[in-house]
Amino acid sequence: MSSSASTTPISYKDAGVDIDAGDALVERIKPLAKKTMREGVLAGIGGFGALFEVPKRYQEPVLVSGTDGVGTKLKLAFEWNMHDTVGIDLVAMSVNDVLVQGAEPLFFLDYFACGKLDVDTAAAVVGGIARGCELSGCALIGGETAEMPGMYPAGEYDLAGFAVGAVEKSKILTGKTVAAGDVVLGLASAGVHSNGFSLVRKCIERAGDSAPATLDGKPFKQAIMEPTRLYVKNVLAALAQHPIKALAHITGGGLLENIPRVLPEGLAAHLQAGSWPQTELFAWLQKTAGIDDIEMNRTFNNGIGMVVVVPADAAEATAATLRAAGEAVYTIGRIAERGDGASVVVA
């Protein structure tokens, strides 16, 4: 009996999904995830669900969750074959958001989706995720690798991340106590982080061969791809010692749109232009794009990745603690009555 196209067996691998490659990736991931294990983990990678027990030191724990991706920064990772740090970005975007509520990140889950699984590329990405978790004291407790033929162009993938943290109910940061006269501290960013990359990519395209060889002492591509700074450990340490009233993670929307999210009605942040340095990277982006200061502060973090609002009499000590931990800290402004003005004024 002759076989025909309709009766010839087709395996899952023939259809484009390689189960063996997926299994190989899991084996590569396990030792990376193991390095991130911490108090509370009851079951890690491998099960249908990951189990985590909230540490008993919490009296009234409130869970805080966050989710994010890496955005079009991934397009440069594909083009430049730089996959080892975008995982750090993935973790940072979620754990820094969770931190803003005063929460300690407890565990992290990732979702990696591609058309055809390249084990080496995926392992490089997950290695960055594990590193980000390690640096923020967060357990990489599970995730999903989805191989979906036809959904993504060859060599491309997408990432999503999910973080869960905990904070004592009495210590949740809401920004409600922020008052006129409070001081605004800015913690330096590591670079562009993971926002504004649609414009960054346009700038790279516009510059072409005239792009600089280095920016801020780093090779051009490294400066562009520098991962999002993880503020978790240093800010949590400062929170334990100082009366911090509010935090703002400076992501999409920049300083102009993120600071108002933690201000009570009727208050504004008055930032002093030039109170923090503009790096070569941001100066190059501004010049290449041909945009004004307002657009820079609305599109990029522009050099400030986290904002800390503290009472005036605690500002110096808070800044000293953060500097001692390794943060570059600038006093960038004060909180004032808003009146008829904007919620963030840079002048």
UniProtKB/TrEMBL annotation:
- Taxonomically, the superkingdom here is Bacteria
Q: Where is the PurM-like N-terminal domain?
A: 62-167
Which top class of enzyme applies to this chain? ligase
Listed NCBIfam families? purM (TIGR00878)
UniProt lists the family membership as follows: Belongs to the AIR synthase family.
Q: Which GO terms describe its cellular component?
A: cytosol
Please tell me whether the keyword Transcription regulation is annotated for this protein. no
Which protein is depicted? Phosphoribosylformylglycinamidine cyclo-ligase
Listed EC numbers? 6.3.3.1
> Which pathway does the protein contribute to?
Purine metabolism; IMP biosynthesis via de novo pathway; 5-amino-1-(5-phospho-D-ribosyl)imidazole from N(2)-formyl-N(1)-(5-phospho-D-ribosyl)glycinamide: step 2/2
Q: Does the keyword Membrane apply?
A: no
What this protein catalyses is: 2-formamido-N(1)-(5-O-phospho-beta-D-ribosyl)acetamidine + ATP = 5-amino-1-(5-phospho-beta-D-ribosyl)imidazole + ADP + phosphate + H(+)
Q: Name one GO biological process term.
A: 'de novo' IMP biosynthetic process
Which Pfam families does UniProt cross-reference here?
AIRS, AIRS_C
Residues in PurM-like C-terminal domain copies? 180-344
Listed GO molecular functions? ATP binding; phosphoribosylamine-glycine ligase activity; phosphoribosylformylglycinamidine cyclo-ligase activity
Its subcellular locations are: Cytoplasm
Q: Provide this UniProt record's keywords sorted from A to Z.
A: ATP-binding, Cytoplasm, Ligase, Nucleotide-binding, Purine biosynthesis
